[in-house]
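Data card: per-record layout.
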Amino acid sequence: MRVDRRRQRGAALLLLLSVSSIAFAAVLIGAFSRGDAERRRQQQTLVRMAAATDALTGFAATNGRLPRPAVSAIDGREMPEPCADEAACSGFLPWVTLGIDGSDSWGKRLRYSVTPLYTTAPIVRLSSVSTKRVLSRDGNGELYYVLGQETCTLATYCAPAVVYSQGRDNLGTGADGRPQANGAVGNVDEARNDEAVLEFVQRPTTSDPRAPGGPFDDLLVALPLTRLYDRMAAARTLP
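The structure for this 239-residue chain is written out next.
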């Protein structure tokens, strides 16, 4: 896997990683073209994901930490036990705890993965390393990092958490707790996101099975570490 920090392509993807408001979410919709009805659904989902990142930073500002994932797809309360590892800290957005809508506009539960260290107060910024990385594909179809790198460090920011939708097609879990089957062949990037706990893929939507990584309609937002720290520092909940 190649890491090239000089890459400047994919402006829409980079904006998506730093979404912090409804205005940003609306701007990003220009990157998608599956018809007016589908664009509206994508816009609604991006708005909900933007609200989720705002709710996460608000929770951290109040509690000195980020929440753990939800108990399940039908119980939106934060799971009560600490995360034992990255896998245990990956699941569904705890929508009840955050007081927000926990589903995307296709009726699937929003997914959430958070660095375990950031779910325990206090977060010590001089020693806590965020662990979530985001990848995309270049013009040759090869994966490269758009956020973080293979090894996250204090000097190389990764994200403390990501929120993502699994889109209209393929995979995901409904609000009734029922999983949706994978109806595509070769959608390796979507399958990767379905099982990811550290590295996630975000790239433009396509239904082309010949595209590198296969068909793809996931939407992802990474919580910016600097914004999290700024909000917590302002609330005096960050040592």
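Known properties of this structure: The beta strands are 90-92, 111-114, 133-137, 143-147, 161-165, 199-201, 219-223. The chain is about 25% helix and 15% strand.

See the next section for split statistics.
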